[in-house]
Structure formats: C-alpha cells, structure tokens
C-alpha cells in the first residue's frame, strides 16, 4: 500500500510505518515529511503540536525507553534526518496481550521511512553511525513532571540491540526501572500491538 491510500478497518494497527513519496530529478529529491491529510488516510489522525530534533555524535548511542505519563502522554511520528538508526516501540499498556513486547524498524535518511508510535508505547532508538539525527513530532508538549521510562536493557523486554561497541547512555537512562518494577499508567485499548506498513 502506498502512503496516501486509505487503510481499511481490517488493516488498522497501532504502530504504522510508511515512506512518503519522493520526487527526484537531476538536483536531488523533494518530499513532504508531514501532510496531515495523507497521514489521516493511513490511520495517523492526531493533532501534533511540537517538533523535536536530536543529534547523536557517536554510533551505539541509545536513548530510551522513554514516554510521558497521562495526561501528557505523547504519540510520536519519527524519522531519521541524517545517518541511520534502529527505532523501537515498546507496548507499555497494562492488560495488553503484547505488554512488554517491542517492534523495531531501521530508519535512515536514505530510505525515508517514518514510524508512528501511539501514546501508551515506550520509545527508544540506537544510532548506527556517527552524526545521526532523529526528528520526531509529538501530539502533546513536553512536561517534566510526566517524563518517565523503562531500562534500555530490561531482560523482560529483551531488545537485541545491534551494538558494535559499548552503549553510549545518559546518566538518567542508566537508572530507569526494569519492567518488573514499573507500574504502568497506560490502559490497554483493545488493539494488540500490530505494525501496519502503509506504503
């Protein structure tokens, strides 16, 4: 399915990956990195309010697993502006049959893929090369008091990070709780974690 084609009821999921169309010529290419009408047609019908940009100087930089608690929970639309990264969505909705499970996608500046991660999911990524930039659009403003996370190396989540050297981590991420010690503020909405490819 191509981004911009409507998704039918039986195709609905909660984590969506898609590649906006690129228009190429002798100068390079052009793409619409965000188009509210197109995104609504593929199941991303949220009101975004803030854009974030993060640049990691080193490969093997891990950020996450992060989220904001309700009432400031955030859905995220993620893309790679430069370099390469592996992006992860982790189901943190209490009562979900896929609780603690994760999905991953490689996002690069070259492939142009974008990943939509709804509220109720943790978000993490690892850079695969130096100077990698990640851009993400969120549907609620940053709120320090709502900031939370789960350990990047939690054995219950068991992400197989493709590290080629020591992980580069913030002090904060080193001290986040494991899933077993986490009391989720998120409620299961009846849709098990599913990945929809909308391109």
Protein architecture, described:
- With 199 residues, the protein is mainly beta.
- It contains two helices and 15 strands.
- It has a six-stranded mixed sheet with strand order 4-12-6-10-1-15, with no helix packed on it.
- It is globular.
- Mean pLDDT is 91; it is low at 1-12.
What is the helix content?
A: under 10%
Radius of gyration: 16 Å
Discrete helix count: 2
Low-confidence stretches: 1-12
- Note the beta-strand portion: 35-45%
Structural class determined from secondary elements: mainly beta
> Mean pLDDT score, rounded?
91
Kindly report how far apart the N and C termini lie: 4 Å
| Cross-sheet strand order for the largest sheet | 4-12-6-10-1-15
């Amino acid at each position: 399915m191509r981004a911009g084609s409507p998704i039918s009821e039986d195709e609905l999921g909660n984590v969506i990956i898609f590649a906006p169309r690129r228009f190429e010529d002798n100068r390079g290419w052009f793409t619409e990195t965000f188009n509210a009408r197109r995104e609504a047609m593929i199941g991303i019908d949220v009101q975004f309010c803030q854009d974030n940009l993060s640049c990691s100087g080193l490969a093997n930089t891990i950020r996450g697993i992060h989220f904001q608690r309700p009432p400031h929970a955030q859905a995220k639309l993620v893309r790679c502006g430069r370099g390469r990264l592996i992006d992860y969505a982790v189901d943190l909705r209490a009562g979900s049959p896929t609780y603690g499970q994760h999905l991953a996608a490689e996002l690069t500046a070259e492939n142009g893929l974008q990943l939509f991660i709804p509220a109720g999911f943790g978000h993490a990524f690892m850079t695969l090369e130096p100077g990698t930039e990640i851009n993400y659009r969120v549907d609620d403003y940053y709120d320090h008091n709502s900031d939370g996370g789960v350990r990047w190396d939690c054995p219950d989540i068991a992400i197989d990070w493709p590290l080629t050297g020591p992980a580069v981590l913030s002090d904060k991420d080193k001290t986040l709780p494991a899933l077993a010690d986490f009391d989720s503020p998120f409620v299961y909405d009846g849709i098990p974690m599913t990945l929809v490819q909308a391109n």
